[in-house]
Each structure stands twice: as C-alpha cells, then as structure tokens.
Design goal:
This protein is an alpha+beta fold and 146 residues long. Helices cover 16% and strands 51% of the residues. The strands form 2 sheets. Strands 1, 2, 4, 6 and 7 form a 5-stranded antiparallel sheet that branches. A 4-stranded antiparallel sheet has the order 5-3-8-9, with no helix packed on it. Strand 1 (40-45) and strand 2 (52-61) form a beta hairpin. The longest helix is centred in the N-terminal third of the chain and has 10 residues, at 12-21. The termini are far apart.
Length: 146
C-alpha cells in the first residue's frame, strides 16, 4: 500500500500516535544527572584568536547497551558562526565504538564575538536484542578574539 493510500485510510489521530511511537524525548543536562543510563553528548570547540575556520568535536556516549547508529546535527549557532555542513552522519564518525562515537564539525567564525553552538545527537542504542532511539543535546560556548 502506498503512503498516500495509507494516509487516506488512517485517521490523523492514529497517524500521529504511530509517528510518536518511535521518537524519544530530548535529553537535557538536568535529566542526565537524574538518569545515568541515557545517551550523553558533549561538544567542545577550539578558541580562535581571529575569525576563520573553527573545529568542534562532538562525542556521544551510551551507558547501557551499544551504540549501533548515530548522527549529529547542528541545531543552533550564534549569528557570527556558519556551519560548513549542518549534519554529520554515521559514516563521518571518526570513532565508532560500542560505547563512544566521535565526529569533528567544521564551522566558520565570521567575526570576533562569543556565542553558543548547540548540537543534537540521535542514536540507536541496543541492549542485547532490544534497540531504542535516543536523543541528546550539547552546547559549547565559542569565543573568537582576545
């Protein structure tokens, strides 16, 4: 059955319920302290003395089970920062271990300023034969200039 035929056959409220089954809620820093078994994400950016290319490293860590798939998306940047790409997929991960995945992101700082970069890491974490999608956010403070 095609997607169009299914969308006509399924009431909107049922479609919304089906879509929400596979989506986990975001994990914020306060939630991580309360639940040590969730996905954790960190982002660290280098400091620059002058505007130019900027490198930020993102890590995703799972505390139970193994990371089987993950990606990272840039979801918010300060006005003076421009990401070279908005997403890095699983193939771009420099490190892909069961407990840790790591990416490097390229950005351009266009002016001397300070501001934040926010990324979202999405992952599938598997514990034996049960796999669940998880989401984590991380924020880095970026400083360009003295």
């Amino acid at each position: 059955m095609s997607w169009l035929a299914m969308s006509r056959a399924v009431p909107p409220s049922a479609a919304l319920a089906m879509c929400s089954l596979g989506v986990s809620s975001p994990v914020f820093a306060d939630d991580v302290a309360a639940d040590p078994d969730v996905l954790r994400a960190t982002v660290v950016c280098e400091s620059l003395a002058a505007p130019g290319r900027l490198r930020c490293d993102v890590e995703a860590r799972g505390h139970t089970g193994a990371l089987r798939w993950a990606d990272v998306e840039v979801v918010r940047v300060a006005k003076f920062i421009a990401p070279l790409r908005g997403r890095a997929g699983p193939r771009e991960a420099a490190t892909r271990e069961d407990e840790l995945w790591r990416w490097s992101l390229g950005l351009v700082a266009r002016a001397r300023d300070t501001g934040d970069l926010t990324v979202r890491v999405r992952a599938v974490v598997c514990d034996r034969e049960t796999c669940t999608p998880q989401v984590a956010f991380a924020v880095a403070h970026v400083t360009v200039g003295p």
